[in-house]
Automatic annotation (TrEMBL):
Higher taxonomy: Bacteria, Pseudomonadati, Nitrospirota, Thermodesulfovibrionia, Thermodesulfovibrionales
Top-level lineage group: Bacteria
Species assigned in the record: Thermodesulfovibrio aggregans
SUPFAM superfamilies in the cross-refs: FAD/NAD(P)-binding domain
InterPro entries: FAD/NAD-bd_sf, Ferredoxin-NADP_redctase_2
Record keywords, A-Z: Flavoprotein, Oxidoreductase
Protein name stated in the entry: Thioredoxin reductase
Pfam families from the UniProt entry: Pyr_redox_3 (PF13738)
Amino acid sequence: MKTFVSIVGAGPAGLAAAVELKANGIKEVVVFEKEGDICSTIRKFYPPQKRVDKVFKGLNLNAQGICDFETETKEAFLERMRKYIKDYNIEIKFNTRVDGVEKINDLYKLKHENSTIAESFIVIVATGVFDNPKKPSYPIPEEVKNKVFFRIPKELPKNEKILVVGGGNSAVETACALSGSCDVFLSYRRKKFFRINEENLKELEKRKNKIRFLLGSDIERLEPAAQQVKVIFKDGSEEIFSKIFYCLGGSTPKDFLKKIGIEFINGKPKIDEFGESNLERIFLIGDIATDRGSIMYAFNTAHKAVKRIVEKYILKEDKIDTDSSINSLS
């Protein structure tokens, strides 16, 4: 298929970009999503009824573009995004993984393995950073892999002894969600939390009698123990758990970006203030570009990128206009 703008990723940033493009009269827009539904990070990693915070790590932003929200539940936020999709008639190709982008003349070919998925004049990459959840440095024994998780399930376990590993907001939220039905331990290698937002600190305070804090603890290794998992800490202590949840964040999918030719500076993708990379007409937006973690920031990066696309590649007299560019693809 041929389209004017291809967006890789149907998370908040990618959907916001599609909304902004449609609002600017750009009709030939297609979103490609490797999963079977939108906002995969929120769907997979957020427990039921978890808050989606507008203010994230103290970053309180006003909407620069169309997409906006106030703090609400996971379910309400997903419904909000689905309404944007319906209202702006956004086309999404689900279960479609893009693992390569190749420039042929004036167009970019989006590829999966050796097949061409689409040809596009402009590409917006909005894949987020949780394509590959971070895993611990020590190996996870094969015998316990079915008891080790990197995301919270839709159906929460009950009456089990659970270890949550991590010191960020996702670890705290996971521990809080599980504490209602399980005996929960929270392991963090530092002696106090540094990156927790105010709302989560309040939730921790409410549940301080339901969560056992293992601050300053560092795991040496895991071992199988009957039908459970033995955790050996670096101080020599041991504890047995029925399940372990790792909440260590995610890493930018650098391999994909490097494969398509994106340059890096100090480990971060090289982009200008509008998100345009060293490859002309390839934009990076959301967490993959900034690693901020804020949904409002993702929305705003989408707005800035689309504004730049309109000004640089559509409105300028020495550039193409939307209709002619689309016609040139056919």
